[in-house]
Every structure is written in C-alpha cells, then in structure tokens.
From TrEMBL:
Origin superkingdom: Bacteria
Record-given protein name: Thiamine diphosphokinase
Keyword Nucleotide-binding carried by entry: yes
Cited PANTHER family: THIAMINE PYROPHOSPHOKINASE
An annotated GO BP: thiamine diphosphate biosynthetic process
UniProt domain Thiamin pyrophosphokinase thiamin-binding: residue ranges: 149-208
Organism lineage string: Bacteria, Bacillati, Bacillota, Clostridia, Peptostreptococcales
Keyword Lyase: no
Length: 216
C-alpha cells in the first residue's frame, strides 16, 4: 500500500469530484465518513472510529476497528496513525475542513503529527494532504517540494510552527528567498504560479502549503 485515502466525517462536495481514487488505493473511512462513501458507491477497505456519529453501527462485511467514545485521539487521527504505522507513503484526507472549526484545526494538528513522525525518523518521500472541493492543504518540514499548477493559480505559504526559517519559493509571482515566516503574520497569502511548475523549500520549520480557489 503506497497511497491511502481517508474519508472524513465532513465533506463539502462529492468525493469523486475531489479526488481520483484508483482500485489500487487503500480506503479508510473515519466513522461517519462511511456515509459519504456508500452514497457514491465507494467500498472502503477499513472503517475506524467510535461510531458515535454512525448510530446504526458499522456494517458486518467491512473490516472495522472500533474505539471507545472517550479517548484522546480523534477518529481522523486514528486513521492517520493506522496509515503511518502501515508504512503508507502518501496519505490524502478527503474533506475534513469547512465544517466545525475545531475539527478543521484538529485535522491540521493530526497532519502535523504525521509530518513530525516521518521527519524524526528520517523517512523521506512521505506526504500528507487534505482535499475538498475548494482547497488542497499540504505540510512540509525541513524539505523541498515540487508542485505542478497553472499560471495565475493561487498558492499560500503559512508557518504552522512558531517560525519557518529559510523559506524559498521559486517560479511564483512574489519570490521568497531564504524568508523568515512566523505564525503571527500572514506574509505568504495569495501568491500565484508564474508557470506550470514551482519549487518550495523550508530550511527549518513546519510549513503549510495551501492551494485554494474561489467558488462561484
């Protein structure tokens, strides 16, 4: 398993319009995310959660890991931990933002946990993203990332840690060269692709990379 999709309990839009899921991909539903999956005819490989928001209980025909309602980890965090422990290289959360703000922030914290876990063990080539119909969120720690896009496409760089040092962004409208970003000043909001490729690097710190589009 090299790629895993985690269907979260809140999705703004249709799964199949948000992400391309192939037969080879591993699919985990976080608790009530199972409703979104079956609505679009998607059969998950695994269900994880306390099922407090899925009152009819998990189906018998799908492998399920049930956790108590009173626990430290959110259902999405449990799914991420499972994927990380299985050695999956690419994790993609579908949904997970746009509903309750506390849930959105906790999902960002869960993404940061995975990023820190991989970094502390020198595990290269691992990525975690969160997608909905309007946004793509990635995290980068002490590393370099190549991205494809279209000229004029919006991209924002936000320091998730207290500070991100030596941030460089190439082929964007407003260049950053060894910049110092902090989590208390939004310097990197609404930059733009100049070409169909860009390169982003951060020397020290955990950087949020957001690609967003206006709806309407």
């Amino acid at each position: 398993m090299n790629k895993c999709f985690i269907i979260t309990g809140f999705i703004n839009g249709n799964i199949k319009n948000i992400a391309h899921i192939s037969k080879e991909d591993y699919i985990i539903c976080a608790d009530g995310g199972y409703r979104f999956a079956i609505r679009e005819g998607i059969e998950p490989d695994l269900l994880i959660g306390d099922f407090d928001s899925f009152t009819e209980g998990p189906p018998d025909h799908v492998h399920t890991i049930t956790h108590p309602i009173e626990k430290d980890d959110t259902d999405t965090m449990l799914c991420i931990k499972y994927a990380v422990e299985k050695g999956i290289h690419e994790i993609c959360l579908i949904g997970g933002m746009g509903g309750r703000l506390d849930h959105t922030l906790s999902n960002l914290q869960s993404m940061a946990w995975a990023t820190e876990f991989w970094h502390s063990r020198h595990m290269k080539g691992r990525t975690i993203r969160m997608l909905d119909c309007q946004n793509e969120v990635m995290m980068l720690k002490n590393d370099t990332l190549q991205l494809s896009g279209t000229p004029g496409e919006k991209i924002s760089l936000i320091s998730y840690s207290d500070a991100c040092m030596n941030v460089t962004a190439k082929s964007l409208k407003w260049k950053l060269i060894n910049a110092h970003l902090t989590n208390s000043f939004p310097l990197g909001i609404s930059n733009e692709f100049l070409t169909d490729q860009c390169e982003i690097s951060v020397g020290n710190g955990c950087l949020l990379i957001l690609r967003s589009k206006d709806l309407g």
